[in-house]
Amino acid sequence: MITSSEIPLTLPVSGMTCASCAAHVRRALEETPGVSEAAVNLLLGSVAVTYDAARVAPEQLADAIRSVGYGTELPPADGADTAEVDALAAQEEAQGAEERSLARKALASLVAAAAAMVVSMPLMRASAGSHHGAAADPLLRWTHAVLDPWLAARMPWLYAIEAAWLQGALLLLTAGTLAWPGRQFYLRAWSSFRHHAADMNTLVAVGTGAAFLYSLAATFAPGWFLAHGMTPDVYYEAVVFIVALILLGNLFEARAKRRASSALRALAHLQPSRARVVRDGGELEVPIADIVLSDVVIVRPGERLPVDGEVVSGASAVDESMITGESRPVEKGPGDSVIGGTVNRTGAFRYRAQRLGADGALARIIALMRDAQASRAPVQRLADQFSGVFVPVVLSIAVATFVTWLVAAGDGSLVPAIAAAVAVLIIACPCAMGLAVPTAVMVATGRAARSGLLIKGGEPLQRAGSVTAVVLDKTGTVTEGRPSVTEVAVHAGAWSRGELLELVASVESESEHPLADAVLRTADEQGVDRLPVDGFASHTGRGVSGVVAGRAVLVGNAALLASEGVDVSPLQARADAWARDGQTPVYVAVDRVLAGVLAIADSIKPTSRAAIARLHALGLEVVMLTGDNRATADAVARLAGVDHVVAEVLPEGKVDEVRRLQADGHVVAMVGDGINDGPAIAQADVGLAIGTGTDVAIEASDVTLIGADLSGVATAIALSRRTMRTMKQNLFWAFAYNVVGIPVAAGVLYPTFGLLLSPILASAAMAVSSVSVVANSLRLRAARV
Amino acid sequence: METMDWIAIGGGLLTIAWINWWFLLARRPTIRAAARGGVQEVAIVVAGGYDPADIRVRAGLPVRLVFDRRETSPCSEEVVLPDFGIERFLPAHRTTTVDFVPEHPGTFEFTCGMRMLRGRLTVEASEGGR
After folding, report:
1. Are A122 and A153 in contact (CB under 8 A)?
2. Would you say residue B129 lies in a domain?
3. ipTM score assigned to the predicted complex
């Protein structure tokens, strides 16, 4: 059992090579006074120690490890190693720099492309008609019909310049574009090529490179082309346009991807950089990296909490919505735990720092989300199968296209052959396929986190979307998990409710029964005092008795009171009605005369009924499991709106119930608080842990509801369904785009419909395809679920 | 058809064959992981591919791959070891450590998120047939 002064700490251990080393380290720690548990992870080279801070200092733990011959370092005395947050900040900065550089390059190449278009118009007019397929390409048709006459009317001087000069100007413009904005494609393509790998850069580099080299040849050896019956047209403007449009596409893609991961960065920004702590009796403001375990932190109204801990003095309401999704501020007083990153609203309080840096709830949530966002959904495997061979296949198709045009179109077909091959290379877009699923996973997990849901990655997300049955554990999931006195009825006015509660609380204060806890909690909440008790006796399974203020008080079930000769019949009808509502009646007799009856119940969370209705609205079968007796279970089920309830199940029986549903063909989601339903959560297709912002249950479940509100289950399932739909749409478009685009670019429609795509249109289509996939994923951010 | 056409077709087929050989079939140099303190560690440079891309390790001992990504190209921003259930984001110009224990001998792949960049991990049986 972890008492309040016990603290978990993870230490790195070096030099452990085998299981026996691990055992040495564990034994050394467990023999240290004050250590209650030490768990060694051989693979990670670390040990998780739970120790009593009052009895042993972290430095002694490190010494214990070193004494058996292994190395260790305490987490930097600056404690709060904010590595997780720092890494994100560095990544964000790098992404920002990359984006700014992309924006500059895209802008420069767009200006160059516009200039190249203008300069090339007179050249096109000169060779009009000689372009094979010139009239077949929608873009060229437009330039001939609209742009050319417009330019000729406004810039007649341009058309007066000699072709050789125009070609020279184009060559310079193009070479400049390739050398600066376009250089990244060639460097990256070359780097991949040396590694026998091919990616998007390979396609762009080969495509624009081929068009550029051909244009160079046409510029410097026009005679050769003329001798073979071809017009030496140049394709410079296409090269510049392709580079410009693809850079523009990359820029939009980078922007969209950054927005897709914004939820994660928003979390990282929750942590303040400085905090006020008590040092040497005074207040001192320190960077949060300087906070050490057991420091007392001072928080004023409106301030963000720097680290996790436990309140020592003061009281306030804390807004935890950024972590739990719960919009109402939560009351905090001494003994309550608080989470770093949340905002103190009303009062001032002091708390003891308990978990720092990477151990803190916020850091763990960020680490978990980062992994989740980088993870893949099984639905992507098809795309992966395809994209592994995609680029070599497209290169092969481009070569085949080139040869086919050359052979089939006869003499002088070199120019359209090159144009078609380049269009194939440029229109092929592996990016859309690669972005289809990961961007959806990223946006969906971010969207979920805003609602206080931690979805562990693409795979759980996909499985949650296909859930057909939801199993709810009753205690702590549907109900509060904390029984309390819900009703008090007094008999014949002999005692007031307060007096009755005082007598019962006094006797029960000696008892350890769960029902006694309920009475004492209620007494505390209502400010009821307790009186000294004499002659306390516990009547196992039936009740308790004792003498309070000279009066013999008997508290228990009907059987106990009857055995003492007390007539309970005046209140029996009331008690039976409560029992039918799932409440446990407890009779009270004073001096062998019936005094009243209390109802004790674990009340249903106010949000449970609506949450269960939402699950039904999603078409899910809802089953509630409980160890309670049939009557109580049925009553709770009726009040909560559950249609199927399995009562009197032991913890092991919960697993069997999940298995039974699975055997019936259901995809089962199990929701529990992780206390005694861990195995059932693990057995289920999707395990959801509820109300555990900081516990190990986060690690064990597929989806964690950080808040205690059951409605998160419906949100998770609805969001997963939406996300699956988005992924399928994305994959469909990405595939359809390539499957249709590549043949069209190759010219399969030319013989029948006379339709061809210019490389410029191909590059525009390529840019649009990847951006549209990311944009579709971004729609999930605003999903109403 | 003219001779030139046959030459074009032949050249095209040869080019296609070469493309597929180079990108999909050609072998790369192999590196054996150095064991250090019981961990088999390999530093892999990520820039347009993996260097080294073919790694040999022994079964049953922890393996640590240290990916050093020296580029910002989005193509390499993720590394996946599907057989070990590992997917990791590689921040640009940083090293990222991936730890796992290969239990069984065999040949496994590590790739980028889209399986375009590839590396190979060959796990050999441990000495003594353990």
Report:
1. no
2. no
3. 0.79
